[in-house]
Specification:
The structure holds 2 protein chains of 2 kinds.
Chain A: H1 2-9, H2 25-30, H3 35-58, H4 68-89, H5 91-100, H6 102-105, H7 111-119, H8 126-156, E1 158-159, E2 162-163, H9 167-171, H10 178-181, H11 183-200
Antiparallel strand pairs in A: 1-2
Chain B: H1 2-13, H2 16-20, H3 24-29, H4 34-63, H5 84-106, H6 108-114, H7 117-120, H8 125-137, H9 142-170, H10 182-196
Helix pairs in contact in B: 1-9, 4-5, 4-8, 4-9, 5-6, 5-8
Classes of the chains: A mainly alpha, B mainly alpha.
């Protein structure tokens, strides 16, 4: 059981997919302007990673090595289609699905999903693979939400679309930071998060 | 004229890396030196140029709502667009595998220099992203989609070679311990992105 707990905790901190393994940056940065989108993205990725790790782990003894990438991609894209259709089905999530545009589809090529399948699911039993997949998705989601929190707060003065910075401050001359909304700022913010993470956990520092 | 404008726009204004963050994973992982960055960049241009028009044709004649009307009028209201993810990625993965086999067989020297980067292209978001953007933009013919593919491929290539050159120089400088490696690379890319933003809003 202790092993399973380790499987769950490692991707959240020591082996965080974004800050340590540098996987899945592609889709993560463009969807962090608002918390709402980031939350939906985080959930979708968690579900896709969990389920596709599970399926690939069930299939691990039958997949021929030479064509494994195609098979994994088919499994992953099946999961992504499920999530995408699910989001489109409800009115509340349809708008978010539209605003995330191609990035939901790009979960297919999100390196976290493929990375976890290659590195973990192909060599482990189904249940630990499911746990590992979900934990990796959550580790990714956590970073996404931290970045989105700062970007929405500083960039639009809101959280989940509700105004949190009091109107009085705006009246006194406070202005939202336009730079924060621009895509490159997400990278700089992420660089700072990595800096903080590695200053706390000295083992992760690169020589 | 229209083609030139689309070409320049897809290189600079809609740069895959700096405007959409596509293909970031391999961009950050393979940019340690200029030589390998060069190889991967060229491979990306090539694969993008081959798969995007192919996916365009598939999308126009099979996947779009009502696209199958040319087979028989009975199929005119069939909408297969929910299958597009799986079809696009299958085309890309199959194509990459094909390219890998061909290069391995006929150009062994190129194969050994590209090595592991070839199969990695299948999961490069820039390739699938190109196809998905193509679907969103409604290009009117194959030519446009090919020009778009070439342009965004070149944009990606330029970006990775630039970053690799900066990182080569950066290895001589004194970076704070926690920022070394990944952290400083992110910040560098962020600053490069800001520089690239001067192209934004340019209409040709």
């Amino acid at each position: 059981m202790g092993n399973l707990k380790e499987t769950f905790v490692t991707p959240l901190l020591k082996g965080n997919p974004i800050t340590v393994l540098v996987l899945g940056i592609c889709s993560s940065l463009a969807v962090t302007v608002e918390l709402k989108g980031a939350l939906v993205m985080a959930l979708s990725v968690t579900i896709v990673t969990g389920l596709s790790s599970l399926v690939c782990s069930l299939l691990r003894n039958t997949i021929p090595n030479r064509v494994r990438i195609i098979i994994q991609l088919v499994v992953v894209s099946l999961m992504v289609i499920l999530v995408d259709q699910f989001l489109k089905a409800f009115e509340a999530t349809y708008a978010i699905d539209k605003s995330l545009s191609v990035y939901i589809g790009l979960i297919i090529t999100n390196c976290i999903v493929m990375g976890r399948i290659e590195a973990f699911a192909l060599g482990n039993k189904p249940f630990p693979s499911l746990v590992d997949g979900i934990a990796s998705g959550m580790g990714y989601g956590a970073i996404l939400i931290i970045v989105a929190f700062f970007r929405e707060l500083l960039g639009s003065g809101t959280l989940f679309g509700l105004q949190v910075i009091p109107q009085a401050l705006y009246d006194a001359g406070y202005v939202n930071n336009g730079l924060v909304i621009l895509p490159p700022f997400a990278l700089i913010l992420l660089g700072c998060i990595i800096w903080v993470h590695r200053s706390i956990d000295k083992e992760l520092q690169e020589k | 004229m229209e083609y030139i404008s689309l070409f320049v726009k897809s290189i600079f204004v809609d740069n895959m890396i700096f405007a959409y963050f596509l293909g970031m994973c391999s961009y950050l992982a393979v940019s340690k030196n200029v030589k390998t960055a060069n190889g991967l960049g060229l491979a990306v241009i090539f694969v993008l140029l081959c798969t995007l028009p192919l996916n365009y044709l598939l999308n126009t004649y099979f996947l779009k709502p009502g696209a199958m009307a040319w087979i028989s009028p009975a199929l005119a209201d069939v909408d297969l667009s929910f299958l597009s993810f799986i079809i696009f990625i299958a085309v890309i993965a199959a194509f990459t595998q094909l390219v890998e086999m061909i290069v391995e067989k006929f150009l062994p020297s190129l194969y050994s220099s590209l090595g592991i980067y070839l199969p990695l292209i299948a999961v490069n978001c820039a390739i699938l992203g190109g196809s998905l953007f193509m679907q969103q933009r409604d290009f009117v013919n194959v030519g446009q989609s090919a020009v778009y593919a070439l342009g965004s491929g070149i944009g990606w290539y330029l970006a990775i070679v630039c970053l690799a050159a900066i990182r080569e120089k950066m290895s001589y400088s004194n970076v704070p311990a926690g920022l070394k490696g990944t952290g400083i690379t992110f910040i560098t890319v962020g600053l490069m992105g800001l520089a690239f933003m001067i192209f934004m809003g340019i209409t040709l």
